[in-house]
Amino acid sequence: MKIPLTSIAWFRNLASIAISISLISGCEDRRDSTVEISGKTMGTTYHIKIVSDEIDSGTLKTDIDERLVQLNQVFSTYIPDSELSLLNRGNGDIQVSRELMKVLSLSSEIHHLSGGAFDPTVGPLVNLWGFGPSGPRNGVPSDEEISRAMARTGFTRLALQELTITKPRDLVIDLSAIAKGYAVDVVSDYLDAMGEHRYLVEIGGEVRASGRNDRHVPWVIGIEAPDMEVRRLQRTVPIRNMGMATSGDYRNFFEHEGQVYSHTLNPKTGWPVTHNLASVTVLHPRAGYADGLATAFSVMGEAATMELAEANKLLVLAIIRDQGAYKEVMSTELNRYLAGITGQKAEAH
Questions:
Q1: CA angle (105 as vertex; 120, 196 as ends), nearest 5
Q2: What Cα–Cα distance (Å) separates residue 146 from each residue in 5, 6, 52, 238?
Q3: What is the mean pLDDT of each run of 10 residues along the chain (349 residues)?
Q4: Which H or E element spans position 105?
Q5: Rg of the Cα atoms in the chain
Q6: What's the pTM value of the predicted model, to 2 decimals?
Q7: Domain 8-342 has what CATH class?
């Protein structure tokens, strides 16, 4: 669920983009045994389904819960003594764990690829616009207030080298727009190491699927329509051996003097985005990468998103506002991937 690097996504679950999980119907007599576990983590919930009849679900849940607690202790901004919280209170050269550096390095990669659209330091802007922990504000910030907040942001002010981070004291990092996707990868990698290769892992709306489901067909993920008033399904996407993340701007916003202000903030301007991209879904073998890219694309808008997707052969589905309706734009690689799974050309709605 699950924030864009310029949005409240840093502080709230990107799973506000409701991603439902369903199964393609198949022959009942071919359904295999499954193990399902669920719980709470990172301020949201997780659900895991494994096609297997040899797993002790109790032991598995204990092991996964322990690992997720460890991850939360690294990435949470709400736990005062988490590694990230301690980092944010420091300055100068600071030693960090390999886990934290791994996600910061991934964030840096996406930051550069997106031309700065993905920026985990935009917290001051998020708070200023009333989308942070301090709650809503009355009215629109002044240009002076925005300039002061922007002076305390900027991922390029952070230096990464081996296991050392160099940062100014006023720079605060929030990784909630990528940490849940990373956690999905950690759990998925754990299942792979156990020899389990037919599973679906979901944390706060971020997903990764492996192999085929219990009916011997690809797992299917539902993408919610970007409708501010009614929750409904926009489309389903079959996936196999792939992570998936969706980000959008249609759940968190405020109105002032007849103008709607999105929670998706542009880190380059300090203002909410005004483009017509309502939501974007990214597929990638690594859910953490998909998570960060989806957030970045929500900032970039349709044209820049699809240009980057085509240039880098990314699997992207954009849902665009179009004169009171919605249209879909699908990258060439996503069309090719879906055609390979379904055996027929995919069609945008």
A1: 105
A2: 16, 13, 53, 42
A3: 33 37 46 94 96 92 98 95 96 97 98 97 90 78 94 96 96 95 98 96 97 95 80 89 88 62 86 90 98 96 97 97 88 95 65
A4: helix 98-113
A5: 20
A6: 0.89
A7: alpha beta
